[in-house]
Protein 1
Amino acid sequence: MNVEAPLAFNPMDPDLAANPYPAYKELREADPVHQSPLGFWVLTRYAEVAVVLGDAETYQHCYAQTQQARLGDAVAEEPYFSRFQRMIFVMDQPRHPALRKYVQGSLVQRLPSTRRKLQSIAEALLDKYAAERRMELIGDFALQLPKSAIGDLLGVPEEDHDSIAESAAKLSPTFEFLPMGAETLASVNESILVLEDYFRDLLAHKRKHPGEDHLTDLLAAIDAPDGMTEDEAISNAILMYIAGHDTTTGAIGIVMLSLHRNPDQWKLLTDDPSLARSAVDELLRYDTPGQATARVAMRDVELGGKQVPQGSMILFYIGAANHDPAVFENPDQLNILVGKRRPITFGGGPHICVGQSIAKTEIQIALENLATGCPGMQLETLNPEFRPTNLMRCIKSLNVTW
């Protein structure tokens, strides 16, 4: 972008997938509250992003409106639309807080057992590749670790993990703002119906045979006077499965790439793997897996000195806010010893990520085990290919040796 010319930030620019941060910096410095020629508003400064995240009454998801802008009015007839509309991450008040408490309560209760499961899986995965001392980091480790742990958290039988994960992976395009072509849309619709049928059957099984798992916990929410409907429980089980393994797969790959692009930081971690716990927030600030999300202004508002009319769609970049020098000293440098910072990687306000404790634990245990078991790890390349998606960052593949 040339700041001398009118800015025309394009969120669909394929170059953003590999490295969005220079474009964010230029836009943040020149026009931090930017009205796109496409009609929506783009926020790249921490202050405005924090305002939008913190005010769930003024800035709402309005899922129907955002999806209609993406795919037209007929989107309401697509199977994925009604299923996703029941997920808490796009719900607005008053339904959102009513359902969130059940999901959050279960996840807090299940965190200790999930931590133990993660440690067991991580050790087994590294043992599997110990003799060869090589693996494809994304498919062999970054995917397998959260896939198995989240499957266990939900009470999915181990023999079903691969097939369910395959269907869940096909839903990734729904988390983007890009239009979906006919083939992608058909795949998304087919996959959400497969997962819905699977979790409906599993929920019925759990009612007869309760387990120590999140899906069993949701039965109590269904039975509560102000609780979930069965359809809401199923949709949110699907959400937990997708968010709990696909997003974390991307995060593990990205943090390992960041550490090897900054070898002094990798050495700090291998010298003291206990740093992993405190390093997670800084690593996810430095390169944020979930780059952006959207809201709709429910009234006329002022953001950064600009008037944003009621009904405007606002696309705000968490990845850009996490590099705002007004909040983070030397934001383009990675420093896992920096201590407490205030990144907004997991959002904020009433909609702060309900599974952030699970996600952080997944990444922490991955880092601890890789730093302990593979301190001499070498990446085949420091410039791997990323998925062609601009909002959810994920490396396609990355061969490593140690």
Protein 2
Amino acid sequence: MRRKRRENDGNPYKSARELNLCFSLFFSIVKVLGNVMVLGVYVLQAIGRSTYMLIRVKGVLVSKKSRYQQIDVVDTEEFGRVLVLDGLVQSAEVDEFYYHESLVHPAMILHPNPRKVLILGGGEGATLREVLKHSTVERAVMVDIDEEVVKVSRDYLVSWHSGAFDDPRATVVIEDGRTFVEKLKEKFDVVIMDLTDPYGPEIARALYGEEFIERLHEVLADDGVLSTQAGTSFFYPEEFNELHRSLAKVFKKVASFSVWIPSFGYSCNFIVASKTRGLSEVTEYEVDQTLRARGVITKFISGKVVRALLNLPRYRKYYTE
């Protein structure tokens, strides 16, 4: 689950008034160009600082405001059911597995025997679902700040969590992730950060700072692995590179890759950091063999896919060296 964009100069949603102006401007342009369009309800999805995507909505199932954010669950024409927080698509029925499998499985495969896993964020339960597919997992702790998102997901996003919330190995904690980690004494084999984008609000950016990354390093066991979504390096290259450099300072091995997520409108970046072994050292055969041995069935991730994702374009290799 990704979250809000930056709430200062980089945020294209400074107010409801500005959002309405964006809609008016779009439809005015359509009229001037002479195109025919049936007006309706749309999600105006921010992709970059000044780039947007429109998603047509068929029906609204939930629209409520929690203590932290606006929560909407809508049915759309092309992406199926979609969870929207503060006007931004978090995940969609038709492509959520691209995101969640990419966030979870490369890191889980990299660890030889992941028994204890900590998930920061991930209120839909889909990250938890993918973690629990690994038969080695004995304990999975999911920490999310917004109880309302978890409640809504339980009722309306059943295919996302697939009952993961009720798995006896799972523990759901409603608390700020930073606060939870700061007081944590328990060690984990894998930590998965399914949090806000690195270029989100100030409070979110602190979760990607070197100080917090060092704390996560302490929380991990000696052979621990960390995985995080990292927003979009195309639209926010400086923020991505800063996060990549911070992880490289703290962890021995760091690898990054990106996956096209249609409902986001961009390629989403992921970073896997390890105390011991690098993701690039894992063979195609090892990926497939590990998934089979642990009883993991995937729709997207495989040995061939992981190897392909790690073959970064030349410009991205330059920026992450």
